[in-house]
Amino acid sequence: MNETHQLAVRVENVVKSFTGGDSRVFALKGASLEARFGEILMIVGPSGCGKTTLLSVICGTLKFEEGNITVFDKDLGKMRSGEITRFRRENIGFIFQQFNLIPTLTAVENVSIPLILQGKSTAEAERRSRTILEQVGLSDKFKSFPHQLSGGQQQRVAISRALVHEPRLIICDEPTAALDSVSGHKTLELLKASALKPDRCVIIVTHDSRIYEFADRIVQMDDGHVVGHFKDHTQINHA
Fold first, then answer.
1. Contacts (Cβ under 8 Å, ≥6 apart) of 106
2. Segment 28-42, tens digit of pLDDT
3. Is residue 115 part of a domain?
4. Tens of pLDDT, residues 107-133
5. Is 97 domain-assigned?
6. Which helix (H) or strand (E) holds 14?
7. CB proximity list for 136: less than 8 A, separation 6 or greater
8. Are 42 and 220 in contact (CB under 8 A)?
9. Do 24 and 80 form a contact (C-beta atoms < 8 A)?
10. The domain containing residue 50 runs over which residues?
């Protein structure tokens, strides 16, 4: 496999700005990075440096003004809104800091959502959801509502929801920020075991230096730019 085909995501000189009143603020100022299949890539840096904006343009929830982004050889800049929505639904799983579980749905029902959106029957969606919840150690929590679960258990439900439709790209925005150290490590161990495969890529934005050791590579950002690439997390000084 050549180097091009090993790449899941390529971001080249991407610019993204936001306007408010008479002002224009640049969140990304020519950011570039590459994410490869079979790796956990972490994006680190101070608050406000553009990390979450970069995640958002990679998954197509924000449009960018300049540069190029390809995900699985698809040029996002040339895709229409509906095409991007379908592409995201079929290929990307999301894990967030606050879990974003629907409080009125059980664990199985929350995990079923991506499959229902893909047009699967409720019975098929819930069957697959039960299987993945068993894999993450929640076979006794199928009918539990989010408020009946601990933070670590809610995060496992969120991970199951992100993986149930077998996406090739898993996007994580501060997935351990609301967890204690033990639960945070368990979350990354679970991600590494469940999500990381030769045909998948995991990108994590984080401030949590406790989980840097799980990264295959770390990209450091500052002021809208990618300013460093590291394989050894001990080289990160002020992320």
1. 142, 143, 144, 145
2. 999 999 999 999 999
3. yes
4. 999 999 999 998 999 999 999 999 999
5. yes
6. strand 7-20
7. 156, 159, 160, 190, 194
8. no
9. no
10. 39-63+84-235
